[in-house]
Amino acid sequence: MDQKKIEVCYSPALFPYYENREAIVVVTDILRASSAIVTAFMNGVDRIIPVETLEEAKAYKDRGFMVAAERDGMVRDFADFGNSPYNFTAERVRGEQIVYSTTNGTNAIKLASSGSQVLIGAYLNLKALAQHIRKEQKDLLVLCAGWRNRYSLEDALFAGALAGMVLEDSRYNTVCDATLAAMDLYDTAKGDMMGYIEKVAQRHRLKKNKLDDVIGYCHETDLTGIIPVLRGDHLAIL
Amino acid sequence: MDQKKIEVCYSPALFPYYENREAIVVVTDILRASSAIVTAFMNGVDRIIPVETLEEAKAYKDRGFMVAAERDGMVRDFADFGNSPYNFTAERVRGEQIVYSTTNGTNAIKLASSGSQVLIGAYLNLKALAQHIRKEQKDLLVLCAGWRNRYSLEDALFAGALAGMVLEDSRYNTVCDATLAAMDLYDTAKGDMMGYIEKVAQRHRLKKNKLDDVIGYCHETDLTGIIPVLRGDHLAIL
Known about the structure:
Strand content of chain A: 15-25%
Order of helices and strands of chain A: EEHEHEEHEHEHEHEHHHHEE
Mean pLDDT of chain A: 95
Number of strands of chain A: 11
Structural class of chain A: alpha/beta
CATH architecture of chain A: Alpha-Beta Complex
Strand order of the largest sheet of chain A: 7-2-8-1-9
Number of helices of chain A: 10
Distance between the termini of chain A: 29 Å
CATH superfamily of chain A: ComB-like
Largest interface: A-B, 29 and 29 residues
Oligomer: homodimer
CATH topology of chain A: putative 2-phosphosulfolactate phosphatase
Helix content of chain A: 25-40%
Low-confidence stretches of chain A: none
């Protein structure tokens, strides 16, 4: 039987070595961009336009768009939102188009666009993602946004959770070491995720700026069936 | 107290994001280059000259040097040796200079040369490495050779073993997610390393070419106190 494969790429800088035009690429940046994007769609945002540079984001702002823009966790002064999922309330985002630029997440989305489909993944929509991928029966490549191209443990853990769930379908297989490692780490962490996540570097960064209030929320599973998908230059609901 | 830091870089392609000129860089390619290099020095080789390309290796061969050269696990026809530690017997290597070019390992050695010292690490010299690093009291950066810039589990496990051993010295600390993940994976694997290593991709590659006879040997610990160090263009004993 021709099995579908699962791979995990731990950094945008490694993407060329994992690139697979047949694959569904799930981009994840658990703390906080992908959790924020899923939340925005849960709260009724119409579309999100990811842009790589702050200059682009600023240009959109000047044209009247709502803009979410952060670097190193801090909202930029010209922007309407930062990167916290709590920013994207229904009151603020319902029916809106939002331009979005973050330190790590939005660049990863652009890279991933060579895949057959680009989805935004978070614990918030974990099961819905796994079900969709298994239904499509395509290869899965999880692209971790990481931190300035470095490995991020919280993204790897999510990759392990998603890979494990897709692998329950016996038509999937993996011989990818990064996937195997991510699944083992998730197995180690899952019994006490909040205790485990204490140690990750991004928690220290967020805490330093008093932005760590979202960590529990960003690890809540299956709050929604919504899957953001890249359509041309913007994200919409699948 | 000014603590020394430990970091792990999972791929040569990520090295720019981890580069640290103050650090001792330990290059590892457990299956098989770094295990083979340590073995060659155990068996009395005088020096090893790492070269990146097969063309360079061939040019050295034409000038009368002994040459070890492989790609994708297979010895090249012009070479005296491949990449198996079993090739580097005392009978063949004692007192010799050997030019060495491999798929992943030798490129990583060149990259690492921006560090304050470049060492070759394997399970074979694990404890000696940890003792030397702690004595020097310098930052530690473990550079995993990986596989064509992809993550290799067997290299990550070794990085975790070494990091854990150095961290027993309370003057060391880590806030590097890749290091934390590697240590947790090593903890998961160490009780039954040979059982665990069954699943890694490189074992499948070696087995396909009947080159997997060395896997047990490459995971034997502390057979030697010898540490290969990069001195200019060649490796010698520290």
